[in-house]
């Protein structure tokens, strides 16, 4: 168990996030004398994580000056009480002077900081998320507390920390500070190299698909019949049921939504609810396996979930199940590939693997594809190579010149991984047509071998 403090200036969404993490499990307000009385504390749940969360919201009522001394003092107090600070900024408002005051407090206190850019739903917030890099606190995690988006990413960031705190508690070494656990504090120039999954940090996979596509059969084939039926680890979570196992030598944690689907069936809202469950699983996964039934592939629901996985920034592998029942396999495969390209252009190049969950055929190839997709999702391209590439791309096909002034793409760097995200310094980014951005994204995909992963590309003006 660890303690997380949510800090940040008023109105960025701290309470909204607190309420989302804690729900109705709000602890009684601490009655100790002194300042703690003003801090709300609750027991948070996120996936199978449990931790204590401290909220510093509601302190802004004392409106003495721009950042009341009281709020500053309470924030410092919360930081001292917490193991980890979730520093929230407002991606819509951008970075304000008060945000820098908080960043300074956190730096001075030497706090372990996770930076979150809230209100990040929709495209209006993209610039703000990017701007948050300027705080020098590492990669901003886009969140939408109100819409519940980005919580899967928060879960991924917190999981290794939670494991470390649990290990530390077990080892009874409370005086040992956790110093080597910087949370992907990557800067533009220094993204981490690919780290292969470990038993502590398994590759997180979700299997999603329509009812009867064969999800349960597949998961049972992978982990062995009994484990799923006799109650997987972390079965208590309300978000998704997960099981950890060794998949062809790779520590893997797989999320299953079948249990919830069964419940949904009772409620006779199968379609609607299973999409919601799939969505939940997608949020917790790094790689999403979209499982199709070969007999009825690419139905509306399959497309919706694949698209959602892409929008959530997950790596996607399409698995076509029940291949054992197909007779004209060659013709079928041709049709499938054609339909895939036509219906899901945003997932161009994503692997399509034919499997039989029933006989076990193709499951090795599925595993290969999942590991490869994970690796690509973590891909890092050196800045020097990117800029040589950008020069070639703009020479081969120059950007347009609206009003006679050519848009210049000057410089490019990779700002993030998981999925790969790139920033291009550009004159008049607002005038650059979407077709040109697509040209660059497709080029990145082909030239740096990044099939099947969402690629983010931001145009930023140099000012
Ligand atoms: P706090 O002062 O930091 O605790 O902020 P609140 O949680 O009270 O939120 C301030 C305002 O931002 C409220 O009107 C919320 O509804 C809104 N808000 C919170 N989270 C989000 C979000 O993810 N997206 C958007 N658009 N608004 C949000
Ligand atoms: P879920 O609803 O996605 O979890 O699907 P199930 O795993 O419950 O499978 C639905 C039905 O499809 C069951 O009758 C399975 O036996 C059948 N099924 C699953 N995988 C295969 C397969 O690879 N080949 C064939 N022929 N049938 C399968």
UniProtKB/TrEMBL annotation:
Positions annotated to bind GTP 2: 209-216, 256-260, 321-324
Single biological process term from Gene Ontology: ribosome biogenesis
Matches recorded under InterPro entries: G_ENGA (IPR031166), GTP-bd (IPR006073), GTPase_Der (IPR016484), KH_dom-like (IPR032859), KH_dom-like_a/b (IPR015946), P-loop_NTPase (IPR027417), Small_GTP-bd (IPR005225)
Keywords linked to the UniProt accession: GTP-binding, Hydrolase, Nucleotide-binding, Repeat, Ribosome biogenesis
Domain (EngA-type G): residue spans on this chain: 2-166, 203-378
Residues engaged in binding GTP 1: 8-15, 55-59, 118-121
PROSITE patterns found in the cross-reference section: G_ENGA
Pfam families attached to this UniProt entry: KH_dom-like (PF14714), MMR_HSR1 (PF01926)
Assembly and binders: Associates with the 50S ribosomal subunit.
Annotated function: GTPase that plays an essential role in the late steps of ribosome biogenesis.
PANTHER family membership: GTPASE DER
Name assigned to this protein: GTPase Der
Organism name: Psychromarinibacter sediminicola
